[in-house]
Amino acid sequence: MVPVLNEAPRLPMLLAALAPLRRDGAEVIVVDGGSSDGSAAVAAPLADAVIVSPRGRASQMNAGAAAARAPWLLFLHADTQLPEGAIHAIATSRADWGRFDVRIEGRSRWLPVVAAFMNLRSRLTGIATGDQAIFVRRAVFEAAGGFPGQPLMEDIELSRRLKRRARPDCRRERVVTSGRRWDERGAWRTIVLMWRLRWLYWRGAPAERLAALYR
Q1: Superfamily of chain region 2-183
Q2: Residue ranges with strand state E in 12-163
Q3: Closest Cα to residue 90, out of 106, 70, 110, 105?
Q4: How many CB atoms lie within 10 A of CB 212?
Q5: pLDDT, tens digit (0-9, with 9 covering 90-100), for 175-200
Q6: How far, in Å, CA of 36 to CA of 8, rounded?
Q7: Burial of 21 per CB tally in 10 Å (0-12, 13-18, 19+)
Q8: Contact, 126 vs 186, CB < 8 A?
Q9: pLDDT score of 181
């Protein structure tokens, strides 16, 4: 499922790329968090379902998971593209959950370094980020309680819960995600900010405080 908020310009390309997966039986669900740019209307003819939920990535992804019917769930950001063969890789995985390596597209020359560290850190720690297209068996997702109702680090917290059950399947295939936040805010400034937020979260800072710092 794809959580969106004012992503109308990106949705046609994203959902067109997912059309072959739909023809092969995958279910594409778009979860709109109250967009003001017509995202839901843009997505409607290109998805199996478009639902509206309270704003917030965690709430939106939980709503999409509740509406889905498949035994596997895949959470895909609107600015991320899956690698070829992604659905087959998931369907044949022997793990309960996993994620893909990531490549970040953008202007900064530091983005390949950022992506390399993200992939290495994830492989060493067993913690995945939403940019890496987390996938999980439905029964395991439900047993873990789904995404926690917090405004930031919901992917980190879900990974922690899932990791208690099993290590993730760290796929070498790469999703391609947008480096727009690094381009807009500056690469080094964003890198420092994200590491600071992760360190504070590890120290027990509430997600609400971190969300305010992120904004």
Answers
A1: Spore Coat Polysaccharide Biosynthesis Protein SpsA; Chain A (3.90.550.10)
A2: 29-32, 49-52, 72-74, 80-81, 97-105, 135-137
A3: 70
A4: 11
A5: 999 999 888 888 889 989 998 999 99
A6: 9
A7: middle
A8: no
A9: 87
